[in-house]
From TrEMBL:
Its main location: cytoplasm. Deubiquitinating enzyme that removes conjugated ubiquitin from specific proteins to regulate different cellular processes. It comes from the Eukaryota. Pfam families: UCH. This is Ubiquitin carboxyl-terminal hydrolase. GO terms for molecular function: cysteine-type deubiquitinase activity; zinc ion binding. It is found in: Cytoplasm. Belongs to the peptidase C19 family.
Length: 435
């Protein structure tokens, strides 16, 4: 039982349940907890907790240019193997343009009339008409970086995730990249349709910083999701028999990159055996000309049958925020293995010009990206282990480990075994080393 919402979770049903025992024992437990909440004992416990929180806030201080400054970052409580969600939320909260858009949205009142102000018990069977992912996402982002609390509980957002994303129901460990894709896709779909009659896509049109030329439409009209993360790939396939060329343009929100097999034995930056894998190696492997194997024969319209062919990717349009996913998990016959190779990546000046289809049409600054956040998976398998995130905020790097947020340095970030990298397009001119 959740002691704040009094929701009861059944492990056999893998769901929150509303039914009670014949003797009404669940309701008796709820009433007992409510009585405790109002008792002097609980009031004293809350007073001590506040004192502890205040002391921890006071301890979250650092020296900047000789003066003492408070760390205003807020952690996210782990609700039961929800570190995959926390790492993604903290990363997205530090992508300023994306985060600001949601924080500036008007609040939506989802409960009114007889249910207003009442405590609700979570269950999947309540239906999906009274939930809004955009609204709960907005509330979560607003709670972060306020400095009013050391940790925030994203319970309401997780409840909505259960409602609309069946893959993430329960308390098993999940894949952070898979969650990010589902989250962005559902935010995009809800923003397209609006909620409770409010067309939130119209706010995007009013935002002058997200011009029409920067939009990439995926599944219909553009939203802030596609305006920020949307890019376009050109998929070029050539028949090796007749030479027929086929071109297709595919929109993307992130790029999934293989770690080349020749680097897979090197697990740390300082390990001596063999060269270090770099992000450039992964990008080159993604965009290099590749001959398709026998299981991927191309249906040539000129030859009128499946033929051997080559495939090559070009980036036709770069996004404002380039999200790069390193494929660290691979299926074998019986299990999913993790590729634990260290991949070197730059903090500043990731140059994407050589991967563009028409590099001459892009200015030098438009192809340079600076790192905003990194998601890291610690452990050996996708169904186990732990996710944390590093992100930069106002020139300082922070490590987000669920409810714990600590100040860190660039060297520590560079040693991390990245799983997902978020690079933001550089706006101002600044000298830096290129990748």
């Amino acid at each position: 039982m959740d002691c704040s919402s009094y929701s009861t979770y059944c492990y056999r049903c893998d769901d929150f349940v509303v039914n009670d025992t014949k003797l009404g024992l669940v309701q008796k437990v709820r009433e007992h907890l409510q009585n405790l909440e109002n008792s002097a004992f609980t009031a004293d416990r809350h007073r001590k907790r506040k004192l502890l929180e205040n002391s921890s806030l006071n301890s979250k201080l650092l020296k900047v240019n000789g003066s003492t400054t408070a760390i205003c970052a807020t952690g996210l409580r782990n609700l039961g193997n929800t570190c995959f969600m926390n790492a993604i939320l903290q990363s997205l909260s530090n992508i300023e343009q994306f985060c600001c858009y949601f924080k500036e949205l008007p609040a939506v009142e989802l409960r009114n009339g007889k249910t207003a102000g009442r405590r609700t018990y979570h269950t999947r069977s309540q239906g999906e008409n009274n939930v809004s992912l955009v609204e709960e996402f907005r509330k979560t982002l607003c709670a972060l970086w306020q400095g009013s609390q050391t940790a925030f509980s994203p319970e309401s957002l997780f409840y909505v995730v259960w409602k609309i994303m069946p893959n993430f129901r329960g308390y098993q460990q999940q894949d952070a990249h898979e969650f990010m894709r589902y989250l962005l896709d559902h935010l995009h779909l809800e923003l397209q349709g609006g909620f409770n009659g409010i067309s939130r896509s119209s706010i995007l049109q009013e935002n002058s910083t997200l011009s029409a030329s920067n939009k990439c439409c995926i599944n219909g009209a553009s939203t802030v999701v596609t305006a920020i993360f949307g890019g376009i790939l050109q998929n070029e396939v050539n028949c090796l028999i007749c030479g027929t060329e086929s071109r297709k343009f595919d929109p993307f929100l992130d790029l999934s990159l293989d770690i080349p097999s020749q680097f897979r034995n090197k697990r740390s930056k300082n390990q001596e055996n063999g060269p270090t894998c770099s992000l450039r190696d992964c990008l080159r492997s993604f965009t290099d000309l590749e001959e398709l194997d026998e299981t991927e024969l191309y249906m040539c319209h000129k030859c009128k049958k499946k033929q051997k062919s080559t495939k090559k990717f070009w980036i036709q349009k770069l996004p404002k925020v380039l999200c790069l996913h390193l494929k660290r998990f691979h299926w074998t016959a019986y299990l999913r293995n993790k590729v634990d190779t260290y991949v070197e990546f730059p903090l500043r000046g990731l140059d994407m010009k050589c991967y563009l289809l028409e590099p001459e049409n892009s200015g030098p600054e438009n192809c340079l990206y600076d790192l905003a956040a990194v998601v890291v998976h610690h452990g050996s398998g996708v169904g186990s282990g732990h996710y944390t995130a590093y992100a930069t905020h106002e020139g300082r790097w922070f490590h987000f480990n669920d409810s714990t947020v600590t100040l860190t340095d660039e060297d520590t970030v560079l040693k991390a075994k990245a799983y997902i990298l978020f690079y933001v397009e550089r706006q101002a001119k600044a000298g830096s080393d290129k990748l």
